[in-house]
Predict the structure.
Amino acid sequence: MEFSLWFEGEMVNPDSDLYRAHPRASP
C-alpha cells in the first residue's frame, strides 16, 4: 500500500520531495 501511494505521488508530482527521496530511475 505504501509503495502504491509513493508511486502515485511520484507520477502526480514528479518534482516533489517524494521523487527526490526515491530517485528510482532518473535520466
